[in-house]
């Protein structure tokens, strides 16, 4: 168990789990904000074979961009990070410990009637949902009333100085010398892009106007979109590169055209409140596709033949401007960071409370069961296979009854548990004799995994961690076991009578009676043990292994050897 109580006094571990390179720009402002707060912040870009999103992840592009921006990153997540971010559904964060605070960062357009960011998929399973404004907050709370939806504004623009950008100056920088009115065109990249639908309309506009295009970054990098990029070069007088400053671009045009589905539609209005704007859509029935507010803020058209006349009329008079100025701060709260700071402090407090709640359970349990001194049936069975003077590691030793038993057999024992109450009492009772008691996280303890052992004993520990942590533990154990060393495992099975009781928090995982339990499928555990490099000696699942009071559930026992 991660000792996250430290997060109130030491730096909290925060991870931004990437499913594609485009998310980097969304997370980057938060990265720098949390870094200034003293947090240990890192991007996670796992290779496609390990990434939760699978082969869709543009790994090479993500790594290149992280390096260019000199952002801290790693290629494997820490399952026990205190806080994990995604822009996607909560399942993306399934590798993380149940106590990890899962956070969804809203991105994209608020103008769609069926937008992902306010859907049940993007709200359920999260501890926090961070949105740009009160409009988004209301939509999310309609889906999941219990969600901790927090308005944080638009972090990328916390320090936005709208008066620092002047159209004429920006045009000079770009070398634009024309007496024509300038159209800034910012199309999106997916099936909602206007590029093909409006191709001929823009060719016609180019006769009378100077067209500057800022393509979506996906249009530049995706091979499947190279035909769209070719079209944009055909219809434009100037095409800005992918890295061109978006804030600057918002001031270039006398009139700006943005695909209504794109998040840029609202962001541009926020950056430049005086912008004259037309929203484009290839959708046939825009009334059913966009929310009513969309039609009060800008001219929204879906018929290319109307574009020329709409441009002419908009240049004469923008009848939407006043409404747009009033509305935009519902979509993008004009924050400067105070709200994000409050959210950060709240998340840190939650992390500490989560740890206290879990450790309090185990501390209370061990304080309340001081008389359990006899070794478990599993320890007695294992004991018959052990040789004197050999070393053994007891993972999750609890009240130490099995550790003490092994020491009595003449073994050198290292015993680890995260319960302060348990370890303190064991040290008091047994001193510094044949048992080295360690209070730490058995998943990643640097101290315990620095040694070498003849045996590793794991009773009722693997089902106390998630699958990703289990993989890490198995690999760690393989490394610290001596050649031909044995690994003894006893865990709860999915056939247990209490399987499914409590709150589901992951695959075969529940919080029941105050603490976390994951129930094991024997065939899956065998496969993972073999994958770690072990040879399975015995594997059995049956009753009679761990009877307790009136309960006698099926229990899995496995013995493996390092070859």
Write the layout of secondary structure elements.
Elements: E1 13-17, H1 23-36, E2 40-44, H2 59-68, E3 73-74, E4 83-86, E5 101-105, E6 128-131, H3 134-143, E7 149-151, H4 167-174, E8 182-186, H5 199-205, E9 210-213, H6 217-221, H7 226-235, E10 238-239, H8 246-249, E11 255-259, H9 264-271, E12 277-280, H10 286-289, H11 294-297, E13 299-301, H12 307-316, H13 321-331, H14 338-368, H15 377-383, E14 391-395, H16 401-408, E15 412-417, H17 420-430, E16 435-439, E17 453-459, H18 467-480, E18 481-492, E19 503-506, E20 509-512, E21 515-518, H19 522-531, E22 534-542, E23 555-562
Parallel strand pairs: 1-2, 1-4, 2-3, 4-5, 5-6, 6-7, 8-9, 8-11, 9-10, 11-12, 12-13, 14-15, 14-17, 15-16, 17-18
Antiparallel strand pairs: 18-23, 19-20, 20-21, 22-23
Q: Can you characterise this structure?
A:
The chain folds into three domains: 176 residues, Glycogen Phosphorylase B (Rossmann fold); 160 residues, Glycogen Phosphorylase B (Rossmann fold, 3-Layer(aba) Sandwich); 193 residues, Rossmann fold (3-Layer(aba) Sandwich), CATH 3.40.50. The longest helix has 31 residues. It is elongated and about 95 Å long. Helix content is 33%, strand content 20%.
Condensed summary:
This protein is α/β, with parallel strands linked by helices and 563 residues long. Helices cover 33% and strands 20% of the residues.
